[in-house]
Each structure stands twice: as structure tokens, then as C-alpha cells.
Amino acid sequence: MTSYSGDKLRILAAIAEVFRPYTPIDDIDLFAGRVNEVAEVLGTVYERGRHVVIHGDRGVGKTSLANVMERLLVRRADGQEEARVLVVKAACDSTDNFASVWRRVFNGIALTRDIRRTGFRAEPAEEQLDLAELLPEILRPADIVSAARTLGRTVVILDEFDRLQGSETARAFADTLKALSDADADMTVVIVGVGRSVTELIGEHESVERCLKQVRIPRMSNAEAEAIIATGLERAGMAINDDAKERIIRLSQGFPHYTHLLAKNAAEKALSSDRTEIEMADVEGAIAVALEQAAESVKETYRRAVTPQRRQSLFDNVLLACALAAEAGGGTFGSTDVREALERITGQRMELTRFSYNLGKLCSVERGPVLDRLDYPGRPRYRFRNPLLQPYIVLQGHSRGVI
Ligand SMILES: Nc1ncnc2c1ncn2[C@@H]1O[C@H](COP(=O)(O)OP(=O)(O)OP(=O)(O)O)[C@@H](O)[C@H]1O
Ligand SMILES: [Mg+2]
Which domains does the chain have, with CATH numbers? Predict the structure, then answer.
């Protein structure tokens, strides 16, 4: 017979396993939604001569999608056989350049060559060669094509591509994609990174456009966020009532990081009250913990935007009004939207002159900048430089009791 507290500990362990706000998904069964995006990537990967660029806002789930693609592609038809596709995944960083990324890709790919030993009896032997060691000192796109030729069907996934510095590096990658396609090499490159468009990631190169498929990963839909909650709770043997579920979905604003963070903490709250069904009070209680546990970079950006804050100063409320306006406006907003939100928050009439100073400062280095000012013809519009901040600001608003 299992003890009551033993059951509780097992549920706690399951919660920690299924809700992981900081770790990309690598288990297909925990991967929610994204069916169209997966279909688009898979469709292109099997089309020889085409490459894929997966882009989207920070934290929307790009790496998780890349992980799942990797799993799907290396799946073997039967356990004994070689994988049909060689999939290599590498993450780029800001110290990388064209050559260092490719060396990492080819590192550890062993080529086996038959050599005949001469001697008393010639017998076949195999020599293992590391492909990275066979590359020339200075790497050019043509060398990548030659290396690709030595391999069979290969998919190279390059994550965190936005971290690479310099337009020359981007250009070299663009040239490589084109060269691979032109040479009909059996290698597909999947580039993954933060960016609103392909151009933001690899620059503008008309000649490669034709051999590129862009797949934008949007924020999650409500149904996708709901799937994260449902799958996780089912595995943990817990449930949630509709109000509480709606609240988590709403607060997450399409960012799976917050869905995991809130669901995890709400589940733990319920369990600490000896319940296996999550209620609204658990979600309310989870907000404070979620704020504590949010990504350090997000917390730091928030602090910098609102402090120093003199008494009567409006930075926290203006920032909150911006987050609400951004949510309502699908990302961008104007000062009138901020005013309306600010009036709702403070319950007072607000003239633009009362907060235009704050809005200006939030676009300056001194306070981030947290906002980008987009100079559209006519009135300026604004948008959050890091959209992951929006849900955090709204959670702060909840915890301060102003919404
Ligand atoms: N389809 C999904 N189903 C369930 N959880 C997901 C899904 N996609 C992402 N997540 C979760 O959301 C969080 C962020 O995901 P991930 O790291 O993949 O995003 P990202 O876009 O690569 O972020 P970054 O821009 O920082 O590289 C992680 O906790 C991850 O587990
Ligand atoms: Mg990532």
C-alpha cells in the first residue's frame, strides 16, 4: 500500500518533470500543438535543394520545435537499421564565425574508409576519419559542398543563429545554402533563430530566397497553451477547473515559458493544500512565485525600466499600460492606447503630457530601452524590444493589485 505522503511526493516529481519553464522540450509526447509548423518544416526537408529558416520572437518555442524535428527525422524504420537521415544539431554563439560553426557540425562525424594493408596477407581494414579534420584551414562555401558530398542524406540544424555577429558571416551562410542547392548536394540546412523575418537572420540575398522556406513560429494559440496544461496535468494525475485554466492561458499571452511557470506553481500550491484539482486561488498564489522564478534577464530588464522611481512617478503604471496596450494591439501600440490603459489602471483622466516623458525614457538606453519607437508616417507607434517582458509586467500588475 502506498502512503499518502508518498503519493504526494510522486505527484510533485511528475509536476517537475512535465512543467519545465526553462528547458526546451525534447520529448515528442510533451510537445504541444505546432502541427502546421512541423508539417511545413518536414515538407521542405524532404524536398532536395531547399533549406528552412525557422524564426520567431524570443521564447516562443523554436528550439523545442527543432528538437522535435530532430527526433522525427532520425527515427529509424526498424530498430536494427541505420538512421535514414543523419541529423546534426549545433547551437551558435556570439564568438562563432562561419568556420567554427561548420567545424562543430562536422566534428564527430566519422567517415569510414576501406584501406588495404599490404603485408603477408592483404586484408581489408577500416580507418576512421573525423570529417572536421579533413576540412581545409580556411573554409569557403565550396568546401562545405564538398564535405556534404561525402555524406548521405544529411540535415543540419543550426540553432541560436541570431547570436552570430556580422553581416559577412550571414552572407557566407547564404552563399553556402545557394551553393548546396546549385550542386544538388543532399544536405538540408535548417536555420533557427530570433527574428521577425528571414532578412533579420541572414540578411537580404535575393538569390537564396528561392531555395529557402521560411517558417515563422508565432506565439502559441490558446488551444496550444491549453494542450500544455492538459498534457502535463494528465501525466501528473491532476486536474484544473475551467476558470483557473483560462486565467493561466490568458496570463501566458502565447509564451509557453509562462504557461509552464504558472501551471507548475499552481499545481504545487494545490498539492500543498491537499488537493489534486487546481483552483483560481492556486493560480493567484502562483503569481508571486512565478515573478520570483521568472527568467533573470526579464527580471533585470523590468527593474531597470521602473527604477529609480520617485514617489508619484508613473514608470510602473506606464509600463503596465504599454504591456496591456501591446496585448490588445497584437504587438504594437500608440500613445492613445497607452492613455486608455493608463486611465483604466489609475482610475484618473490622463493627458498625454503627463506620461510622454515616461514613454520617451522607456525608449532610451537609460531605461533599457524596453520599447522600440517605430517611426511610421504620422503618429509614432511602439513595441516591446523583448516581448517576453509583457507577461511579466502584467503579472507584476496583478501582484501590485492594480489589475
Ligand atoms: N510546443 C511546445 N509544447 C510545450 N512546451 C513548449 C513548446 N514549445 C516551447 N515550450 C516550452 O516553452 C519554453 C521556451 O521554449 P524554447 O526554449 O523552445 O523557446 P525558444 O523560442 O527556443 O526560446 P529562445 O528564443 O530563448 O531561444 C520552454 O520551457 C519549453 O519547454
Ligand atoms: Mg531557443
Answer: 4-18+221-293 (1.10.8), 34-106+135-217 (3.40.50.300), 303-400 (1.10.10.10)
For the ranges 60-64, 109-113, 136-140, 292-296, which has the lowest average pLDDT? 109-113
CB of 49 closer than 6 A to ligand 1?
Answer: no
Q: Quick check: 257 and 292 in contact, CB under 8 A?
A: no
Tens of pLDDT, residue by residue over 260-315, are 999 999 999 999 999 999 999 999 999 999 999 998 999 999 999 998 877 667 99
Residue-wise pLDDT for 118-154, tens only, equals: 555 556 566 677 888 888 889 999 999 999 998 888 9
User: Does ligand 1 have an atom closer than 6 angstroms to the CB of 21?
Assistant: yes
Residue of 17, 64, 224 best suited for mutating to test ligand 1, as the one with most atoms within 8 Å of CB: 64
Residue to mutate, 34, 41, 63, 192, ligand 1, most ligand atoms under 8 Å from C-beta: 63
CA 294 to chain centre: 15
Task: Report how far residue 366's alpha carbon sits from residue 172's, in angstroms, rounded to the nearest whole number.
Answer: 36
**What's the CA-to-centroid distance between 159 and ligand 2, angstroms?**
7
